[in-house]
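#struct-queue
[09:14] JT: dropping the first one here, sequence first, then the structure tokens:
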Amino acid sequence: MFRKILGFAVLAVVALVALKLAFGLVGFLWGLAWVLLKLALVGLVIYWVLTLVSPSTARKVRELIGGAPPHSTDI
């Protein structure tokens, strides 16, 4: 009887540790996703302001990040 109670107690402790680890990992990933989303939003706002202020510079930035679009003579 005592052995079964002790076994359930150990199982409960192991389950709590596993849940804490799993939810901690999910929380970390959730926080990382929010930070990346915020950084992407800041970059988007900066790009929009750059587009309004200097469209040619915004085009250069777009080509630097995404690569130059193909020319019609390249096809």
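[09:21] JT: and here's the second one, same format:
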Amino acid sequence: MMENKKKPNILIFMTDQHRYEALGCHGNKVVKTPNIDSLAAGGVDFQRTYSQSALCMPSRVTLLTGQYLHTHGIMTNCNSVDVSSLTTLPNFLKNNHNYQTATVGKTHSGHCDDMGFEYSRICAGGNDGEQNDYHEYLKKHGFGDNGWYNDTHVKEYDAYVSNIPYKHSVEAWTGDETIKYLEQADRNKPFFLWSTFERPHPPTCVPDDNPFPYNPDDIELPPYDEKWYNKPDVKRPGCENMWNVFQTGEKKLRQAIANYYSLVSMIDDQIGRIMKQLEKMGELENTIIVFTADHGDFCGEYGQFGKNLSTFDVLHHIPLIFYWKGKTGKEQIHELTEMVDVMPAILELCGIECPDTVQGQSLASAVTGSGMRCGKPWDAKQAVFFETPFVKTVRTKTHKLSICWKEQISWGQLYDLDADRKELNNLYDNPVYAHIQRDLEIRLLRWYIQTEQPQVHGAGKDETCPPWRWYAGKI
């Protein structure tokens, strides 16, 4: 098969709200993830990758465009947005390199047709006019109109047992539908497939026949105290919408985390099934496989469960694993990387020139090991960036700075991450750290100026663009 294909297949596994530490390969002693661990052991496991947003849609659009939020324009979760003007990975591969393009699972990134997907089976995140295929599946099997969202148990963020058995769960459905696509794909053309699991995002419900149960008593909660809750609301936005141990109690929080781990193991089980299908088809050695998540979860940190719009590492630190049998290195990379870097890395691994619209930095030489010399990494980043409306953040290996400006509200947060991993001691405007604050402010300003993409009217085609700059109408 491979000699007939000019390009390799691409398979991206994505989970939703998946904390970096919630994998066996990342040191978690409770949750079992043998299939993802196998990808990490046989590939390159990036240890310090950060999502550009702690919200689903902005992060997912970043994955598929290689652009920062203020460039692609999607800052919040929306029911439907126009993404037809964006240069997306599936559209680029379909239109320029003869790829089949498909997505299965939670999309939440704009209309599938606009994003460039020829084939789609959606379980969540659909847009106006798009059918939720999983809900139709549940109705067909007698489980009601809205799946687990219509379970008459408790709130969405509660932990409970669903009346939907494992074989009909959204995890099993996503695995089944991914395998169905692989079975019917044209073997003479390469495919780009985004297999995107809706959970462990809440609802944190498990099936009655849960094949991967975890004992809540085995869950060790991270230390927590009231100090985090003493921060002004604007510095931890949305936190009152999530669980916290002071309201639910430790027993309930442990149960939520135990269910969360069960969902992770169910996803891992389905990834194992999909990998076996690739091997059965003889396509495994010709498929670049990426495992990642759109953002993280508190998962007990600060006594919290869920997410919010804050800038804490636990919500932005995500897993990122590249596996290409026989072609990737086998190591852990501890340099800083970002979600924007995934698209250019995939394209370079495929031998495809990256479009000018992409703002990320390719990781391909780190993935193949060709950029490693004498134990030193490729030209790694010194800082990563993430953002929400009116808030911009820069993070180095040792420090983090966040700046907010909205109407008459402004604030800054500066943390020494070596001394204060939980980001509780704000050093902003502390004279001892003035030189660090200034350095990070310059980095943040430089990043924003370099990645600004104005709708050029006056300069137009007469503007001379540096290599990192593009503008609407240039391509």
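[09:30] RK: nice, looked through the second one.
[09:31] RK: The domain at 2-368 is CATH 3.40.720.10 (Alkaline Phosphatase, subunit A).
[09:31] JT: good to know. The longest helix spans residues 250-281.
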